[in-house]
Amino acid sequence: MSGSIFGRYFRVSTFGESHGPAIGCVVDGCPSNLDLSEADIQAELDRRRPGQSSISTPRSEPDACKILSGVLGGKTLGTPIAVVIENQNQRSSDYSEMSALWRPGHADFTYDAKFGIRDPRGGGRSSARETAARVAAGAIAKKCLTKIEIRAWVESVHSISMPSFDGIPTLEQIEETEVRCPHKPTALRMIEFIKKTRSEGDSVGGVIRCRISGCPAGLGEPVFDRLEADLAKAVLSIPACKGFEIGSGFAGTRMFGSAHNDEFYLGEDGSVKTRTNFAGGVLGGISSGQTIDFRAAFKPTATIFKTQNTLDKSLNPVTFAGKGRHDPCVLPRAAVIVESMAALVVADAVLAAGKTLPLK
Amino acid sequence: MSGSIFGRYFRVSTFGESHGPAIGCVVDGCPSNLDLSEADIQAELDRRRPGQSSISTPRSEPDACKILSGVLGGKTLGTPIAVVIENQNQRSSDYSEMSALWRPGHADFTYDAKFGIRDPRGGGRSSARETAARVAAGAIAKKCLTKIEIRAWVESVHSISMPSFDGIPTLEQIEETEVRCPHKPTALRMIEFIKKTRSEGDSVGGVIRCRISGCPAGLGEPVFDRLEADLAKAVLSIPACKGFEIGSGFAGTRMFGSAHNDEFYLGEDGSVKTRTNFAGGVLGGISSGQTIDFRAAFKPTATIFKTQNTLDKSLNPVTFAGKGRHDPCVLPRAAVIVESMAALVVADAVLAAGKTLPLK
Amino acid sequence: MSGSIFGRYFRVSTFGESHGPAIGCVVDGCPSNLDLSEADIQAELDRRRPGQSSISTPRSEPDACKILSGVLGGKTLGTPIAVVIENQNQRSSDYSEMSALWRPGHADFTYDAKFGIRDPRGGGRSSARETAARVAAGAIAKKCLTKIEIRAWVESVHSISMPSFDGIPTLEQIEETEVRCPHKPTALRMIEFIKKTRSEGDSVGGVIRCRISGCPAGLGEPVFDRLEADLAKAVLSIPACKGFEIGSGFAGTRMFGSAHNDEFYLGEDGSVKTRTNFAGGVLGGISSGQTIDFRAAFKPTATIFKTQNTLDKSLNPVTFAGKGRHDPCVLPRAAVIVESMAALVVADAVLAAGKTLPLK
Amino acid sequence: MSGSIFGRYFRVSTFGESHGPAIGCVVDGCPSNLDLSEADIQAELDRRRPGQSSISTPRSEPDACKILSGVLGGKTLGTPIAVVIENQNQRSSDYSEMSALWRPGHADFTYDAKFGIRDPRGGGRSSARETAARVAAGAIAKKCLTKIEIRAWVESVHSISMPSFDGIPTLEQIEETEVRCPHKPTALRMIEFIKKTRSEGDSVGGVIRCRISGCPAGLGEPVFDRLEADLAKAVLSIPACKGFEIGSGFAGTRMFGSAHNDEFYLGEDGSVKTRTNFAGGVLGGISSGQTIDFRAAFKPTATIFKTQNTLDKSLNPVTFAGKGRHDPCVLPRAAVIVESMAALVVADAVLAAGKTLPLK
Prior knowledge:
The structure is a homotetramer of 360-residue chains. Chain A has eight helices and 18 strands. Chain A has helices spanning 38-48, 108-115, 131-144, 171-175, 184-199, 227-236, 257-260, 331-352; strands spanning 5-6, 11-15, 22-28, 65-67, 71-72, 75-76, 81-86, 149-157, 160-161, 206-213, 241-246, 264-266, 272-274, 282-283, 286-287, 292-298, 308-311, 317-320. The first copy, chain A, is globular. Chains A and D meet through loops of A and loops of D.
């Protein structure tokens, strides 16, 4: 019953209910003598926090983080780093109805089935608010991965997709619009679509794309702890995520081997490269030095304002319509979370491979 | 550098190179007093082993398993169960060229990058032969899950897909054709397509569908060790797997929340059910009691008989064409492996949830 | 580099430096629907905290705990329980000299060697203050072990030992004197001895005895995760602990097998008992249902007020004498820590054995 | 219920019952490109195996090991190394009576209580025969620790103790007599005593001393995964072990801090040394670069030939006297096992500290 610890070497323990006193994380395994400040973590939290834009929940949490341990004079000590984020803007009265029924698409029923008790305030532990702790941990991991660039962005919302392209967008390109799609014309259409969906009391899903460059060859372990397997686990552990594909993914199942195999050649810089990257940067579970390239599917937000049929805890049929403050589309914020989870996986893989952090 | 142990409570350690003396597994955590014989394991191994049909590799391994420990008089002792499968039909001369170059789409380059040494015979540890050990372990897990039905089958090969349907096919329906697609007209088309692809020296991928029924509500842990996250890791750890989706998956990203949310209702048998199953049997990382339903994408087999460009270990450009015995399509055998990995995940989740095996 | 997580099923992650903002723990794996309040934890913390008596350090920390997550309305939720204890009474100026030299008997040198950085304020992470977080976690474990009685007490201080006896003293007997030796005449002599030692600027060690009754047969796993092995690890992980023995321990090495083997007989209550308990309650790594009985050796406190020779960080010989507030004998407070660690081990073993908490 | 995997980074999974087909281990995490042959492992197994001398059991097992995976052309591949030892000299008829009763001092009762089933042949999994698999794994660990010397020897048998001395005996000094006490006059007295004890149908215990030199400063993790805690767990996991002490151990509890603190000074070779070594080579859980020095207490062998009272499985009082082939004193062989477990701990600690094996 203990599922809140992630990683084998760079280990993150998270805690916290949406409307409890605080959420947070403890990172055990971060190397010593690394520059780290609350500002480093806050910058990432600010990207994830709600209330930033016209298309996300108006719940406005400052999400101010506090480092409780593991850092002295701006340097990590090599000891556990605890980060706490107090919950401030709690409007628990919004959620009173929730304790008595099971909202469709939410974890109310399964938490009741598993634990026989549930914090109904804002979804408790199952709330996406929990991911703030992951973003804090991911910010620490990113500080260890200075030579590695990890970028995630919104590739599609519902059926609106940006054009395909090579390379990795800059942080500025991603952050240019509130929807975190680096192709501005598409971004504007996405924003329109999300606003329209919200005005109808509905919600919508989409796809996050993530690319990681600068990752050395040799990360990932054979057989079970493959790099793509750990990335898949990390990504599927994010609330609302329903799918993961790396490289060619599901589309690759409709290719022939002669087209899919990425041929090796010697790059002008003397390094081994592949002419295509259908593998998505991993071969046999181990990074090849090519760009790691994966997608994550996110379902529409479960909270909608339309009336739905469901059951209450006494098994009576009831109707339910969401109230309160919710994102009609989790994608823009999910991009930050995907980046964070990817950073945790890569930092762990670096240590698992017997290399040291920060990666040189 | 230790990635060959799977599970936290039902733990499986595998070992073995494709052309070494033997492959095998040690299962630590299987409960005592369970009926188990070599025949139970052999039955599953026989489904996976090569040389069974007109569309798989003619390499014919008997894959005879031997239980070395943990079982006495047909009952498990609660102690580690070691299973060994000797490698017999080794034609290592087929692979002599391989040690000097990096085959496209294979793990040769990444193993060299990671380990500085590699067993070139049949792909060594990166060979799909390693999965026989997983099937042996999965057979033991299945014996613990008597009330749970886990079935995987071939849903599509390249662009040939079977019609969608509800429910779970029987083992007989799956095994009726050598391609393990339970819809016979589609299966026959798949077989034709695979044969044609092989005759052209090429290979092809496809999609495995897996459904699990009888799984009680309450399996899976919140946050990181979600049931779908563990399934994703398990499935992505299978050689050639490039994608995983549960429930609505990637298609669900083009739905609205009002359509995607599965409404709860009271079944005639008094149990809580949902009218649809876009969630795929999990909510908030925890099983809901509905059918668990996921897909896995497999790329085309890396070994093809067409000439490809690549590099040798001295970084010189060379050409390479596969020789020897290989499946032009891994899907039929991958179905058995997906079932095995799913069984390992579910057995582990049962123990993690504080329930006992065999599940009652 | 991540050594601050304990347990496999009942998992505890601790954090905090002695003079940082706070110390604390996150308990992941505690079952749901258990009664738990801050008062439960505070009661144990109050037993461990400094400044309580004439023989411990006058540093007076209120050690007030705050539960940040995992509990709602006095019941555990089954989600991680974070407990934070703010550091209040920090007199860091006492410790300024410490950053420049390596105190004999302390971890200054080894932390510098390992991490290249060290929090010199009060010993940082290596301070015994860290054990407050363990006591908080142990208090939670104890709430899960209602039928099991775990008692630790001071059996000897230097060469002053209490008479041997059977059975388990009550909490009241242990707490009657500030030295936590339940034999009052011995306790009074110990107190005199500790006071005299302190007046000489010196320190002294001793032995903790711990007995656990009510533990069902069947806890502990064969081979590596034996109950006594996990207890030994738990106890040796406490600062200043240098030895562990269970049952006959080192004295048993001078016995013959014919005297050492504990004969089984049928108790009047129909349960299986042994006439002697040289095994200390475990056979083959598994609890037998007899009282678990072990000892832990604690060295004299490293901080003394006599002048000692040592090196500074530039490898120059220097002298050093302790200042500030320190216990001349850690034993009375160590008893509480030993109890806590034993509770963590037993709670973990119960879950590992597939039993549920609270133990019925 | 899975307790047969040891280590976090250098991970060992063992399996096997005493009289089953085979015992063995799988080592996952051994680095690649290390020289390793069956002869390396056999050499250590030959030290542990029975039937070597006048004071051990006449059961004569060749204990021939076979490497099944992970090694090619005398070099490790970085993949799991499986080692199998077939059980050959099984005289199971000796043990027929055992299935019906619980031998005093053995694990029969606790295995029955835990598992509800037990392999009565030679003690099954609880047999000391299981330690051969540890010795095989330890031999692999030793190959990774070329600069580190790990030596264990018999310091005392019953009340016969060798004189104290500094330094580490050579392998030749230890192996000179069959009792593995490097002080020959004491060794001869021990042998006499063991023979006399055996002639009386009794058994006897003793103390193993282990010293490790060449261990760099910085191994071991703060708080829970301290080097001494991991050593204690490793040692207490050996059958018949009842105690562990490091450095001053229990004797140190009768010292004052002013005598116990090891003063630092600068050695002639420019390295930091301590004038005494009461710490036993660890400070704050981390190796200091001084010799690691610990003791392990072993109880008298449980199997004796005198008649003892016990219960059968129907709870009837019965008498029992051991038959068959047994060591009257496990100490000489335990020395080899202690060395092996220490090697596993050190190899794991090296990897945990982010250093690479083989240690340079």
